């Protein structure tokens, strides 16, 4: 177990390793590994502070819902496919008093698309440039499509306060900035694989527009 002052900082290697583990056979996604990776990504939002409050509390709630479902029924919530099949067979999509996992994970999937797009643009940004523009662009391409106008406006305004690329990495990574920058390309590659595979699963089950 990691110790010392760096323990609470964000680590892209952890995200990479868990997402890599999540890519299991039969073109499926292991839910436990997916959630472990997302817990590390959530740490990024926490370290950024109030600027990402428009999305961080919602993501945490969704992670907790899926974790609870998995803890109660590990067999049916082992993978994304097993979860969807279980909830479809038991007509849980129509059950008003049940927060189903498929709908919850779809929201996380959309959030992951935003995170990937933002980090992709950060990768090529000069250290001295502000990160606000690429964050706004990533948001507008992804999550903004699912948010009401009030949240979109609040989010974009909050992003104006974001620091330079160099300052952002120091804030979330501590002294391990270079380690994180080095692993960023591989992390983006495996994250893209997870996003594409998840999208494909939802397309197969015709759940891409699950309300």
UniProtKB/TrEMBL annotation:
Instruction: Extract one GO BP annotation from the record.
Output: negative regulation of interleukin-1 beta production
The residues forming a coiled coil are none
Pfam families, sorted: GLTP (PF08718)
Q: Which GO terms describe its cellular component?
A: cytosol; membrane
Give all residue intervals belonging to the Glycolipid transfer protein domain: 29-173
- At the top level, the lineage of the source is Eukaryota
InterPro entries the UniProt entry points to: GLTP_sf, Glycolipid_transfer_prot_dom
Extract the GO molecular function terms from the UniProt entry.
Answer: ceramide 1-phosphate binding; ceramide 1-phosphate transfer activity
Q: Which family does it belong to?
A: Belongs to the GLTP family.
Give the protein's recorded name.
Answer: Glycolipid transfer protein domain-containing protein
Protein source organism: Cardiocondyla obscurior
């Amino acid at each position: 177990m990691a110790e010392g002052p760096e323990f609470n900082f964000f680590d892209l290697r952890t995200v990479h390793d868990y997402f890599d583990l999540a890519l299991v056979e039969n073109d499926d996604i292991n839910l436990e590994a997916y959630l472990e990776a997302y817990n590390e990504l959530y740490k990024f939002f926490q370290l950024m502070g109030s600027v990402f409050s428009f999305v961080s509390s919602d993501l945490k709630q969704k992670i907790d819902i899926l974790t609870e479902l998995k803890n109660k029924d590990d067999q049916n919530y082992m993978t994304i496919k097993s979860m969807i099949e279980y909830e479809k067979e038991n007509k849980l999509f129509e059950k008003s008093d049940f927060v189903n996992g498929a709908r919850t994970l779809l929201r996380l999937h959309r959030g992951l698309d935003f995170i990937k797009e933002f980090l992709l643009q950060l990768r090529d940004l000069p250290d001295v440039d502000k990160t606000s523009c690429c964050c706004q662009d990533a948001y507008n391409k992804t999550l903004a499509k699912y948010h009401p106008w009030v949240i979109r406006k609040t989010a974009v305004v909050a992003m104006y306060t974001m620091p330079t690329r160099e300052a952002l990495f120091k804030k979330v990574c501590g002294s391990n900035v270079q380690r994180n920058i080095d692993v960023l390309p591989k992390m983006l590659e495996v994250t893209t694989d997870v996003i594409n595979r998840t999208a494909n699963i939802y397309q197969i089950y015709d759940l891409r527009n699950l309300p």
